[in-house]
Amino acid sequence: MNLRKVGAAAEHEAEAYLVRKGAEILDRNVRLGHGEIDLVANMGGVILFVEVKARSSDRFGTPAEAVHREKRRRI
């Protein structure tokens, strides 16, 4: 599976998880300037901005470690 398909599958899984937890998906792949937010959802009146990261192993770090300080600031 190529990286684009892996990313799309991970976004689909994240979306399905949020919906199972009661979130309403408001938008997907929102382009803002030079960046993108993978999912925007509403869960109980709280707006969620979701960055999806997928890894086949932790060899190069965990998905959480891939969302560095600058990425969190932009989100």
UniProtKB/TrEMBL annotation:
Annotated Pfam families: UPF0102
Molecular-function annotations in GO: nucleic acid binding
Entry-linked InterPro entries: Restrct_endonuc-II-like, tRNA_endonuc-like_dom_sf, UPF0102_YraN-like
Domain of life: Bacteria
Family of this protein: Belongs to the UPF0102 family.
PANTHER family: UPF0102 PROTEIN YRAN (PTHR34039)
The protein's name in its UniProt record: YraN family protein
Taxonomic lineage of the native organism: Bacteria, Bacillati, Bacillota, Clostridia, Candidatus Pullichristensenella
